[in-house]
Amino acid sequence: PHGGGTCLADSPSGGYANSADTWAQTAVNLLGSTWPVLKFWDKCSIATPDWGWVEVSSDGSSWTRVYGINVAVGAWTERRIDLSPWRQQTNLRIRFRMWTDGSTAADGWFIDDVSVTEHAPQAFALPFTERFEQGLTNWITARWTATTNVPKDGALAAVDTAGTVMSPDTQQAMTLGGALDLTGTTNPQLTFWMRGTMWDRSRMQVQVSTDNGVSWPAVHTSYNDWNAGTVWQRVQVSLSGYRVANVRLRLITWAEWGTQPDMDLYIDKFTM
User: Fold this and answer.
1) pLDDT at position 72 over 90
2) 105 contacts: CB under 8 Å, gap ≥ 6
3) Which has the closest alpha carbon to 252: 120, 61, 100, 84?
4) CA nearest 249: which of 182, 165, 187, 201?
5) CA-closest candidate to residue 139, choices 37, 210, 2, 211
6) Could you give the angle at the alpha carbon of 114 between the alpha carbons of 109 and 115, nearest 5°?
7) Exposed end of the chain (fewer CB within 10 Å): N or C?
8) What's the confidence (pLDDT) of residue 120?
């Protein structure tokens, strides 16, 4: 276990079964919360194309995947998922789901120290710059990681999938851990650098929220035909329509219609 004497495991006595679909489920009342975050620690050995998923639902019928993993992670790793889009729900179901195909098996998925807590917002002033030199300490994320693989400048950049396929129909969000105050600006512009490849039926969006994270309109979208390879490209996004005091920012990638593209998308050098 990560802490204490026990942890949650899908197959504690050996490798997991083929052709299985199992889960452990709980629920939480988020009414009255401001910035709820799901936190947990996990490690795993999951064979391709099997998956471990975290899914949430407000009605127990329609589920949103907010985390997916299917690699070997030998060390306990903390995952953080922003639940603000569901902060008005009184009975948000959360489940850890293990899905396997009929031909491969491995040791399984281990989960520990699960909590839903209020995030303490960080203070960010303008001009704002993020070069990821301290890793992802300024961000709330479960799947994005810091990497030394050819950053734009400095030692680190952020990458969405870290050398593996994208989980099908899964949101991979990286949310800035504090709101921005754009009230004193006249023409705020967000710029960042991006490289990598987005394959069939995959997307990346820059999204903002002015209602404490419930809704997230997109201010920039890159589609599956975007392919820069190892060449860094500069992206500029106007935020002139969001000159208010409480602007949250996030990047989100996902693959649609059950696809599992082999995709690495690198981000570096945010400025505003």
Assistant:
1) no
2) 15, 16, 17, 18, 47, 50
3) 84
4) 182
5) 37
6) 155
7) N
8) 96
Angle at 207 between CA 64 and CA 170, to 5 degrees: 25
Model pTM score: 0.94
Show Cβ contacts of residue 260 under 8 Å, excluding neighbours closer than 6 positions.
49, 165, 166, 167, 168
Q: What is the pLDDT of residue 224?
A: 66
> Two tokens at 207?
């999204």
Q: How far apart are CA 195 and CA 205, in angstroms?
A: 14
The CA-based diameter of the chain, rounded to the nearest angstrom, is 61
pLDDT digits (tens, 9 = 90+) for 222-266: 876 667 678 899 999 999 999 999 999 999 998 888 777 666 789
Separation CA 111–CA 60 (nearest Å): 22
The one-letter amino acid code at 191 reads T
| Residue 237 dihedral angles phi and psi, to the nearest 5° | -130, 125
Q: Comparing C-alpha atoms, which of 105, 130, 115 is closest to residue 39?
A: 115
- 259, with CB counted inside 10 A (0-12, 13-18, 19+), is middle
